[in-house]
Write a structure and sequence with these properties.
This protein has 347 residues and is of the alpha/beta class. The chain folds into three domains: 4-53; 62-159, 3-Layer(aba) Sandwich (Rossmann fold), CATH 3.40.50.620; 170-336, P-loop containing nucleotide triphosphate hydrolases (Rossmann fold), CATH 3.40.50.300. The chain has eleven helices and 13 strands. α5 (182-195) crosses α11 (328-336) and α7 (220-239) packs parallel to α8. The radius of gyration is 25 Å and the shape is flat.
Length: 347
Amino acid sequence: MVARARLSDAQVAAVARYCFGIGSTAPDLPPADEYEDAQGVLVATAADGDLTVVEVPRWDAPGAVAVGLRDRGWAAPAAWVGLPPDDRTALPQRVLALLPAAGLPPDSAALSVAAAAWATVREEGREVVVVPVPVTPYVPELPPGELATCYGAGLAGHRLGSGPARTGGTVVFCTGLSGAGKSTIAARVVELLIEAGRTVTLLDGDEVRHHLSAGLGFSKEDRDTNVRRIGWVGAQIAKHGGVAVCAPIAPYAGVRDDVRREVESQAGPGSFVLVHVATSLADCEARDRKGLYAKARRGEIPAFTGISDPYETPGDAEVTVETAGRTVDECAQQVLDQVPGHSRSRD
């Protein structure tokens, strides 16, 4: 039986570097006979320790880029690596713009920003060819000059970012026991953000269960899958500058950490705001409008969070909301004070 492994964007980029002779490091891949990308396209095969590259979707071979430039009449191409400079006089009339993109999805906000910046340069009258290249942003696998040489060009300059691009989007991720008030607070946060003119999407735990995670049960694996789906959708929203307000129970710290990493890899540092709605178990049981705690106490609901299954209290929450004796607006405003770009409304 043929063992097939699915590679991440970063691993496919490493295969492309290997195939194109960019750098000297062989890709570090899991044991398998065949490797495919996220879309299921066969990328490479392995036999007796030798890797044979079949196809590297998305990446243009440096030799093909060099041939294309010669066909355009570029006798001595000049490359700029990364974002264009603020001072456009540093650019030649013809520019090969090499955008480090390894590990970034094709619709990455960082790539969109870079492509838009080079489109502006083109509108100013320069001839620009933009090529995403399979090296890592911020700390490329080889110096800019060597990268330019791989593409048959001399280096005109480079401008590499110091860290992931901040898109302006945010995921507000509310976690807490069943009945803690997560959905109520999240809904009020959404209303206030809309009143402030923000683009907002509410991902409530029950609604997501019904639509996005229909068919999943309540085992730890299924709960983790549900929370990761919520996190992935939230990351896509934040990546494009929107605000996603999420309200699952999300009882396990490890999965919350995974969601934080996913969001911040897509929307930049500080784009994930973890909100612990810290209503006590006693208060949640006292509310128990759906009778769930009573059923759990009788053993009718197995693995119920807070009763027969653990809730791992966050130690890394940006906001801890104590609901006892406080109004919904007070709790929502406490959350809003931690949302980047949101100004507290004043009378």
